[in-house]
Task: inverse folding
């Protein structure tokens, strides 16, 4: 309810502003803020959610602007077509850039986007026939209603076509901003938004949940590029002129500053940040205003610093440095006579300040402050009472396979790291419906086997077939997609997502609606989300974590984290579930609960491979056991047989007699 | 008509400019090895080195009356020390905190911010215009089989190789080098074994800016110097670091030379406007087909 009132107020204020501020100068400023906000909201998808840094958004912005300008200049195509065209062209360039740059992790995207910005600026400068080069292209204000293309067919449309005035154009940008707000809010609340956050928390676990890190990073970047293109197209008509000098490194950094300073991972933050960076040059042009602003910042810093010290939230040094910096900044502002020469230094200082002392941005800072008193305002909990039942935790159809053929067949697997053979011609046949134990001393190659089976390592030799299909060398996300789920020896949850959201990431594969359908808010996309929520609630109930549904995964005790990981893996509707030391670090009652869960999973027809050091667990649940030692299979059979095998005993306890 | 002599001439000058790209890229590698971070303001470190060198030399010449080649030699150690100090400042202000909080966006933003600040300060100190840097060697070209080579170009190639060799030797032979290897392999374990990893990272930044400052005074006599010298070179070096691989010493030399030559050939045969484009396209191609760089090794991720 509160949300609806807030949204209605926002819309009213945005539309009412031109009636309050009648000066064309300020209305133009507001339009610019709205345009920057569109870009910043898009940039936040990449920068805030996936955590990748793009220094090329000014180029994408420029591409949007030039799309609008060239369409008009060469083909006479107007404003309304320019907007979608700007989005599409910028998204295409975004894909061209993201596809190579995101293949590797690390600072590559930042480096490549920086290079991309330079290329685009050069090409626009040089491709004179298309872009008019350094001269730029002039545009006129868009027609309020553009009926020209239809006027020949429908003669009554021949009428005077007024051009938009400043206020009307501002309203057009507000419509663009609201469109961006709605679409981006829907996307980040959907499975895609969860995927973006998940891949940042644990890329490996994302891939193993069939959420391809690469694919989703590219998707995030392309989405972001599309909104940069929209902003660019609007900007071209707002300024009525485009020129290559809009595409600069400094401009890209300004966009990043807007998002960081306003507050990442929010809708308010980028808008707030855009307002600040658009207004900043005005502030810097007027030394008196600048001094007042510096005084306000210094006063705020002193108050906040005093509160933090008083509450003992930070030690003296950490609390006093930012205060001292702000005060020094104020003193400096009184001394300076002209700031325009030092404009970029001030930008740089602002970035440093935000990075260190406001990492969550202004909005994030306020949100944390409110969150201390009213946590439910900041992160409204999802109510799952009455949603889902433990019995509904299972996929609609139980996994079936021909029972006389192995479900998983690994043959002659060799995994070599340099000179070390971690696995040496290992064969493994896992029959459907069984729990297959994989044991061996530390360093015997159990986890390596797990990593080969799930595609994290590509085997040096040998092949893996699953359910009759060769899966050797597939990517982890593809292998997860065919129905192999896993848990991790060192728990790999999405630590900043809630328990419920962790499981919903596991359910990612069960959605059909595309990003565009979600952005459009189609009914079947909403229904799908509801179904997934109920299913996630069922899975939480199955492992007994329903009371912790809204708790962030990192706050869970260790034993519960392991259970949550199993629930998340089950969300993938696997045919085969790989459990890597699920009992490690668990207390005796937890272990009893775990054994119970393993039995129930088995009862639903899901095949399992279990790596475990707790022999009581292995002996009580496994149908067959394979023993590895130094990367070789030394025994296989029923648990009791293996337990009696001399080579196994020797491997575990050592031997003085050389075995033949 | 294709003129083979011109072609060779372009290749030679491409090699010398490519060595500069290589040295700057080498600086990226030094810090990437210890902390998986790099200085987005590396180009500005080069620019500051070059401008500081210019000021030191003019001071030496005007106040002490020291003649040209000698002034250049005297200036070198001072500039190298200046570079080290500058690098340490970057690490201290821009990187240290971000490493602690494991924030990639943090160090990228902070080093960009420092780069912007350095550039802006340089504009205010030395002005926005470019000016000529006094050359330590004569301008007269040496003729070898009809190809004209500037003595300065020879100095660039030799100086760049010598510097990289010296830093490599320091990394391989000194106990500090062991600490670098340990830190890059496993920062946590190195810390537990008594390696002061924070110091190792600071030193790697100091060395990185030292190489950049050196590159600055090497390249300035053949180009012009000024506050805008750094940005383009820093970007080129990014391309070189990606093409050659962020982990390969040979990669930066080969990548640098490759890019230097492509630049020169494009500039001559196609258009100087497009000079920078092929290198950057090459970068995208390398990422598409061999993401770890032409000479880089792909890392094995552990679960």
Result:
């Amino acid at each position: 309810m509160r949300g609806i009132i807030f949204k209605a107020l926002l819309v009213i204020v945005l539309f009412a502003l031109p009636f309050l501020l009648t000066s064309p100068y300020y209305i133009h400023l507001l339009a610019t803020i709205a345009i920057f906000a569109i870009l910043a909201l898009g940039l936040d998808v990449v920068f805030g959610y996936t955590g990748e840094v793009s220094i090329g958004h000014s180029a994408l912005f420029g591409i949007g602007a030039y799309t609008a300008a060239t369409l008009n200049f060469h083909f006479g195509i107007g404003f309304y077509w320019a907007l979608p065209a700007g989005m599409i062209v910028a998204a295409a360039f975004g894909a061209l850039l993201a596809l190579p740059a995101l293949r590797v992790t690390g600072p590559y995207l930042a480096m490549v986007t920086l290079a991309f910005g330079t290329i685009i600026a050069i090409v626009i400068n040089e491709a004179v026939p298309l872009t008019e080069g350094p001269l730029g292209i002039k545009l006129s204000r868009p027609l309020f209603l553009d009926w020209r293309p239809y006027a020949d067919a429908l003669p009554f449309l021949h009428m005077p076509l007024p051009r938009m005035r400043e206020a009307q154009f501002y309203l057009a940008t507000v419509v663009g901003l609201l469109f961006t707000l709605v679409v981006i809010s829907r996307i980040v609340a959907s499975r895609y938004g969860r995927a973006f956050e998940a891949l940042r928390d644990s890329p490996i676990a994302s891939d193993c949940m069939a959420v391809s890190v690469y694919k989703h990073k590219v998707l995030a970047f392309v989405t972001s590029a599309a909104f940069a293109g929209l902003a660019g197209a609007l900007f071209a008509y707002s300024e009525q002129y485009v020129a290559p000098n809009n595409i600069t490194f400094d401009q890209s950094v300004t966009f990043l500053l807007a998002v960081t300073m306003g507050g990442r991972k929010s809708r308010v933050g980028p808008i707030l940040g855009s307002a600040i960076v658009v207004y900043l040059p005005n502030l810097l042009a007027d030394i008196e205003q600048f001094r007042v602003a510096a005084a306000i910042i210094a006063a705020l810093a002193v108050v906040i610093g005093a509160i933090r010290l008083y509450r003992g939230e930070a030690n003296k040094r950490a609390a006093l440095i930012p205060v001292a910096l702000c005060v020094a900044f104020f003193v400096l502002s009184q001394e300076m006579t002209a700031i325009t020469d030092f404009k970029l230094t001030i930008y740089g200082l602002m970035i440093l300040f935000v990075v260190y002392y406001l990492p969550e941005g202004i909005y994030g800072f306020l949100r944390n402050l409110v969150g201390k008193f009213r946590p439910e305002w900041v992160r409204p909990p999802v109510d799952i009472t009455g949603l889902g039942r433990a019995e509904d935790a299972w996929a609609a159809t139980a996994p079936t396979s021909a029972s006389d053929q192995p479900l998983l067949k690994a043959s002659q697997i060799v995994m070599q790291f340099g000179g070390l053979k971690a696995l040496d011609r290992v064969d493994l046949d896992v029959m459907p419906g069984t729990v297959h134990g994989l044991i061996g001393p530390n360093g015997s190659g159990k986890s390596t086997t797990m990593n080969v089976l799930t595609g994290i390592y590509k085997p040096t030799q040998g092949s893996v077939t699953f359910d009759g299909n060769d899966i050797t060398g597939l990517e982890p996300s593809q292998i997860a997609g065919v129905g192999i789920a896993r848990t991790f020896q060192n728990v790999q949850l999405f630590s900043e997502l809630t328990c419920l959201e962790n499981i919903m990431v596991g359910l990612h594969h069960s959605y059909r609606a595309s990003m565009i359908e979600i952005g459009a808010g189609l009914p079947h996309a909403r229904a799908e989300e509801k179904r997934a929520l109920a299913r996630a609630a069922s899975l939480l109930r199955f492992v007994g974590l329903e009371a912790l549904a809204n708790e962030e995964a990192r706050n869970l005790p260790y034993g519960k984290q392991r259970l949550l990981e199993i629930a998340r893996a089950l969300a993938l509707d696997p045919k085969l579930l790989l459990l890597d030391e699920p009992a490690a670090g668990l207390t005796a009652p937890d272990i009893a609960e775990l054994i119970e869960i393993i039995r129930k999973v088995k009862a639903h027809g899901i095949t399992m491979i279990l790596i475990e050091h707790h022999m009581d667990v292995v002996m009580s649940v496994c149908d067959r056991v394979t023993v590895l030692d130094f990367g070789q299979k030394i025994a296989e059979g029923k648990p009791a047989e293996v337990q009696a095998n001399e080579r196994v005993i020797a491997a575990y306890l050592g031997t003085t007699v050389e075995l033949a | 008509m294709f003129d083979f002599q011109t072609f060779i001439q372009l290749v030679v000058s491409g090699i010398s400019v490519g060595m500069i790209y290589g040295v700057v890229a080498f600086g990226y590698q030094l810090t990437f090895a210890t902390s998986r971070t790099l200085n987005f303001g590396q180009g500005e470190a080069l620019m500051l080195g070059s401008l500081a060198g210019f000021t030191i030399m003019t001071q030496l010449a005007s106040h002490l009356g020291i003649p040209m080649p000698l002034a250049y030699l005297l200036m070198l150690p001072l500039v190298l020390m200046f570079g080290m100090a500058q690098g340490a400042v970057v690490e201290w202000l821009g990187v240290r905190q971000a490493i602690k909080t494991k924030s990639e966006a943090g160090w990228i933003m902070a080093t960009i911010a420092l780069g912007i600040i350095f550039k802006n300060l340089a504009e205010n100190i030395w002005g926005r215009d470019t000016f000529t840097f006094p050359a330590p060697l004569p301008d007269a070209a040496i003729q070898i089989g009809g190809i004209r080579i500037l003595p300065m170009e020879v100095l660039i190639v030799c100086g760049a190789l010598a510097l990289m060799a010296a830093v490599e030797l320091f990394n391989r032979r000194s106990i500090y080098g062991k600490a670098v290897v340990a830190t890059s392999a496993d920062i946590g374990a190195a810390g537990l074994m008594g390696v002061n990893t924070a110091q190792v990272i600071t030193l790697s930044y100091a060395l990185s800016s030292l190489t950049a400052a050196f590159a600055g005074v090497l390249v300035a006599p053949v180009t012009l110097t000024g506050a805008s010298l750094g940005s383009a070179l820093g970007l080129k070096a990014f391309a070189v670091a990606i093409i050659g691989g962020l982990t390969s010493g040979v990669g930066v030399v080969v990548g640098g030379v490759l890019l230097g030559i492509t630049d020169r050939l494009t500039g001559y045969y196609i258009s100087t406007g497009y000079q920078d484009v092929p290198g950057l396209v090459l970068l995208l191609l390398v990422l598409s087909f061999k993401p770890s760089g032409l000479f880089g090794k792909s890392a094995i991720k552990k679960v």
Remarks:
- The longest strand of chain A covers residues 420-430.
